[in-house]
Write a structure and sequence with these properties.
With 483 residues, the chain is of the alpha+beta class. The chain is built from 13 helices and twelve strands.
């Protein structure tokens, strides 16, 4: 096929037998798709027939990453070799099987499959969709991915009765949100993601979940919390201590980011797609929960990487001052999924794309290759997080009755729920990779503080919920590095 795309050397895919390939259309930014790439190693030499030792090659297959039945994730599905039917993927949620070569199922359904070829040592694959949609690869993720190079902390003792584990995704999310120990929180995130992907947690919410609700703010262990502007200057990153303070600030942000990804799954589990207030329409699709559980898993990985690097520099997580300003944005946007996606994922996380490269460069200039590598892993993941926010914001706008313009709606959300101007310089390339072209954010400013909430509003007892979100992300956390 002439439309195959080179996605890299086949050696690049030796780390796992399965990889998730995330794609986005550059013609229509609302189009996103994930493909599962499977590699089946050639049989050992002793198992090969005579004369095949020099010609045996790995077998490569590609299929859509979600079951066509209910869009359940297939990345952890079992592979079976059925007589007279060939290799099949078995959906862990409802045991539907799909042939890897044709996508056909004994149920009568069919999954999309994609051509794969090996050309001169490189993997070439058929992208999803039409050629004219200009599909480009956004990221490659090994399914067996552990927490990168981070030390694997031992799984914590479950904070629930093993004989009565959480039965729904929301109840598991509530447990994570109420967990104050960072290590136990990370452990629970890993457990939830594994159970969701393997089909052991398939129910999203229950009546009991709706009655219990979601905590207003996750508890934290006994850290020294100060105001957003009181964390102190951190210098230019030229000493171990200043770099440790930078990484500490990032680790604290990642800890909140875990909760933000878990909170969006729990708080908006019953949101209806089709209306601006989320009260009328259809249920959120399963890929919404898959995407944001993946975000939570990434944030847990990031926290683990940063914590390990802080310790390698001779310091401890919790040793420096922190602030909880990022959760202000969760409070301000707790009423609307449109607002949450816009402010958290398309403002704060997108701002991280602008700031991260400069911090990475500072670490390299200081000769700290290890810290730079950790931050590079984080940055590459954050591009996919912004893309997830963009995907689902676009989806909500398209499915609204009537459909609404996503750019106009985003700008309205920012002007209403964000305080201050979106400041450059912007990382145009990585923002575009995630789907945020310039019309989304250029010359965009939220309402002034006194215009949005005059002094009398605070005096009338409206409280913190009445305060618009402000810029409290990465750049604020590392403000002193530019001094």
């Amino acid at each position: 096929m002439d439309n195959l795309v080179n996605i890299g050397s086949k050696e690049k895919f030796k780390s796992s037998h399965r990889h998730v390939l995330s794609w986005r259309s550059y013609r229509d930014p609302s189009l996103h798709n994930d493909i599962l790439l499977f590699r089946f190693p050639a049989p050992p030499i002793d198992d090969q027939e005579d004369g095949q030792h020099d010609t045996a090659e790995d077998e490569w297959r590609a299929m859509e990453s979600e079951c066509p039945h209910l869009a359940a994730p297939l990345e952890h599905a079992e592979i079976e070799d059925l007589e007279d039917f060939g290799k099949v993927v078995v959906c862990p949620w409802h045991n539907y099987d799909f042939r890897l070569d044709t996508g056909e199922s004994q149920t009568g359904m069919k999954a999309c499959t994609f051509a794969v070829e090996i050309r001169e040592g490189s993997v070439w694959i058929q992208p999803p969709g039409k050629v004219e949609d200009d599909w480009r690869l956004l990221s490659i993720r090994p399914v067996s991915e552990k927490f990168a190079t981070a030390r694997q902390e031992p799984l914590q003792t479950p904070s629930y009765d093993p004989d009565s584990p959480p039965k729904t995704l929301v109840s598991f999310c509530r447990l994570i949100l109420l967990t104050s120990s960072p290590l136990e929180k990370v452990s629970l995130v890993r457990e939830l993601v594994s159970k969701f992907r393997s089909g052991h947690v398939t129910r999203i919410s229950s009546r009991e979940d709706e009655e219990l609700g979601v905590p207003d703010e996750p508890p934290r262990e006994d850290f020294k919390v100060v105001g957003v502007n009181e964390t102190g200057k951190r210098g230019k990153g030229g000493t171990k201590e200043t770099r440790a303070k930078l990484l500490h600030a990032l680790a604290w942000i990642e800890l909140w980011a875990i909760d933000l990804a878990i909170d969006i799954c729990a708080r908006f589990a019953t949101w209806k797609v089709g209306s601006l207030d989320g009260k009328k329409g259809t249920k959120l699709p399963l890929f919404f929960f898959s995407d944001f559980l993946k975000v939570a898993e990434d944030e847990a990985k990031h926290f683990s990487l940063l914590k390990q690097r802080i310790e390698e520099l001779g310091f401890q997580f919790g040793q420096f001052n922190v602030h909880n300003g990022l959760w202000e944005s969760a409070t301000v946007t707790s009423h609307s999924l449109f607002s949450r996606l816009a402010i958290i994922h398309l403002v704060h996380e997108a701002r991280g794309l602008d700031v991260n490269p400069r911090q990475i460069q500072r670490c390299r200039q200081a000769g700290d290759k290890e810290s730079a590598e950790v931050m590079t892993i984080i940055h590459n993941d954050e591009v996919t997080h912004v893309a997830a926010g963009h995907r689902h914001f676009q989806y909500l706008c398209q499915k609204n009755d009537p459909p609404i313009d996503p750019v106009a709606q985003f700008r309205e959300e920012v002007m209403t729920h964000f305080h201050g101007k979106l400041k450059g310089p912007f990382n145009l390339e990585d923002r575009a990779r995630a789907g945020l072209t310039e019309e989304w954010y250029v010359e965009l400013e939220g309402k002034k503080w006194d215009e949005c909430f005059p002094k009398s509003a605070a005096e009338d007892g409206l409280g913190d919920d009445a305060v618009p979100s402000r810029d409290v992300g990465l750049e604020k956390a590392v403000e002193g590095l530019k001094a």
